[in-house]
Design goal:
This protein starts with a strand and ends with a helix. It is an alpha/beta fold. About 50% of the residues lie in helices and about 15% in strands. It folds into two domains: about 230 residues, Spore Coat Polysaccharide Biosynthesis Protein SpsA, Chain A, CATH 3.90.550.10; about 120 residues, no CATH class.
């Protein structure tokens, strides 16, 4: 049964929640919003949540709200809660039968959400996803498709399909979900932190019983210098660790840790430890050996035998495994070897470019 917009007779089929923080530069926010207000889907609401921006993002959003009052609703948060907090505010106001999310510097093909909703309605799926393409300018011309989910994951999620889905659930922003996924049981995104998606993506996967996929590059993922994904900091590394602790807590609570232990052990080891370790080493100007030692120690305390995991051994190359083994044995030796390897690469690169 469709939900009805409060104070309005129109049916709200889909709510798209857009967290916004300082996205006015270079017309990024306008391009995103224009792609949403011009969607071909009838009965769609756009809930734009300004997360206490310090530029004129809120003014831009108010102009869209004024111009498209039947389609755009703006929420102005008095406090910067990061993306997760903004999404939570949007969820409280969402009236759609389906709910989707979009980042404020990305955009969608104009018929994307109509196609996704039609696929959801025709199949009865709990969630429908699409693929994305990375772009470096404002364009509606898709480049090479970046696959977010496989067609083999579609249909009713039996044990094997759900295991595959848990391994590669794909981004939250490339999907629409039945509203019951968020509202039948308590749900919220972590606030005041990065990588909030990592914390909840497996919890969402466990709430889905039927998944369908639209194999098109309908979501445009904009690559630009101001994107937060391009910056590595100790705080972001710590946030990713915390996101994985939250993910693991959900897994214990919903029973998936017991049922899908090897998959979840692998996901935790990759995101909590491996990705964090190497991104920190690559992106930090000043290396804190105590932080690295603590990272490895907590990994071993959480999953002592993670290096015996089937997926870990299949997907982590031999060289990285050697570095990981070295770090768990001696953080000091690991840092020296890693830094020497970086220096060697720079020397070779300079020689090649002469």
């Amino acid at each position: 049964m469709f939900m009805v917009r409060k104070g309005c007779c129109k049916v709200v089929v889909l709510s798209v929640i857009v967290p916004v923080y300082n996205m006015a530069k270079d017309g990024n926010l306008e391009y995103c919003m224009n792609s949403l207000v011009n969607q071909t889907l009838e009965g769609m609401e756009i809930i734009a949540v300004d997360d206490a921006s310090t530029d004129n993002s809120l003014e831009i959003l108010r102009n869209f709200e004024k111009k498209y009052p039947e389609r755009v609703k703006v929420i102005a948060s008095p406090e910067n809660k990061r993306q997760g907090g903004a999404r939570n505010l949007g969820l409280k106001e969402a009236n759609g039968q389906y709910i989707g999310f979009m980042d404020a510097d990305d955009w969608a093909a104009l018929d994307l959400f109509e196609k996704m909703v039609k696929l959801a309605e025709s199949t009865g799926a709990d969630a429908v996803g699409t693929d994305m393409c990375r772009v470096y300018e404002h364009t509606m011309v898709p480049t090479e498709r970046e696959v977010c989910n496989e067609m083999s994951q579609t249909g009713i999620l039996d044990y094997n399909k759900r295991k595959d889905y848990l391994l590669t659930p794909g981004p939250v922003v490339t999907k629409i979900y039945k509203r019951e996924i968020f509202f039948d049981k308590d749900f919220s995104f972590p606030e005041h932190m990065s990588y909030e998606d990592n914390a909840v993506v497996l919890e969402l996967a466990m709430r889905i019983n039927h998944y369908e996929h639209l194999p098109e590059a309908g979501y445009f993922y904009y690559q630009h210098n101001d994107s937060t994904t391009h910056f590595i900091s100790l705080k972001k590394c710590q946030d990713r660790m915390e996101a994985m602790r939250i993910m693991l807590r959900y897994a214990r609570e919903n029973g998936s840790l017991e049922e899908y232990r090897e998959v979840i052990e692998y996901k935790f080891s990759i995101l909590f430890y491996v990705t964090t370790l190497f991104s920190y080493m690559q992106g930090s100007n000043k290396i804190d050996a105590r932080y690295i030692k603590k990272l490895g120690k907590e990994m071993l305390e959480t999953f002592p035998d993670f290096r015996n995991n089937t997926y870990y051994n299949e997907k982590i190359n031999d060289y990285e495994q050697k570095l990981i083994n070295l770090q768990l044995k001696s953080t000091f030796a690991f840092i020296i070897v890693y830094k020497l390897k970086q220096i060697s690469k720079k020397i070779k690169s300079k020689k090649y470019n002469k």
